[in-house]
């Protein structure tokens, strides 16, 4: 029996619109990516299901004393079952660089 594994496109046109109120820290820059996920697709991992898209292009937004909430929108991705937005107060690109650097330069135990 052949199993077809399909990939998902990454979410595009992610937009963050600040709104009044909220509990985010004031005068803070946040970074956001969105990933599409289909939990019903076969996976490359044997015995597992679920396919994740690549993350969207990273966007950022900066809160102020009045606007401490954000509404995030993006274009729909065909074939997904849900989305996973991720917000950080440091750039994902910077975090990925640091983690990659640490993993590459970590000594291997004997």
Question: How would you explain this protein's 3D organization?
Answer:
The chain is mostly beta strands and 110 residues long. It has one domain. The chain is 12% helix and 35% strand. The chain has one helix and six strands, in the order ββββββα. It has one helix spanning 92-104; strands spanning 15-19, 29-42, 49-52, 59-62, 69-73, 82-88. Strands 2, 3, 4 and 6 form a four-stranded antiparallel beta sheet that branches. A two-stranded antiparallel ribbon has the order 1-5. Residues 97-110 have low confidence and may be disordered.
What is Rg? 18 Å
List SSEs in N-to-C order: EEEEEEH
Globally, the shape reads elongated
Task: Supply the number of helical segments.
Answer: 1
**What's the rounded overall pLDDT mean?**
78
Distance between the termini: 43 Å
Helix/strand layout:
Layout: E1 15-19, E2 29-42, E3 49-52, E4 59-62, E5 69-73, E6 82-88, H1 92-104
Antiparallel strand pairs: 1-5, 2-3, 2-4, 2-6
What's the quick description here?
This protein has 110 residues and is mainly β. The protein has 1 helix and 6 strands; from the N terminus they run ββββββα. Strands 2, 3, 4 and 6 form a 4-stranded antiparallel beta sheet that branches. Strands 1-5 form a two-stranded antiparallel ribbon.
Quickly list its features.
1 helix; 4-stranded antiparallel sheet; disordered C terminus; mainly beta; 110 residues
């Amino acid at each position: 029996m052949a199993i077809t594994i399909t990939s998902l496109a990454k979410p595009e046109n992610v937009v963050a619109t600040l709104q009044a109120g909220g509990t985010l820290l004031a005068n803070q820059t946040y970074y956001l990516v969105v990933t599409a996920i289909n939990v019903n697709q076969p996976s490359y991992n044997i015995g597992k299901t679920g396919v994740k898209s690549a993350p969207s292009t990273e966007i950022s937004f900066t809160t102020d004393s009045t606007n401490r909430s954000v509404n995030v929108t993006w274009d729909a991705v065909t074939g997904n079952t849900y989305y996973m937005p991720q917000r950080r107060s440091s750039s994902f690109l910077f975090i990925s660089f640091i983690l990659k650097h640490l993993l590459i330069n970590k000594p291997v135990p004997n």
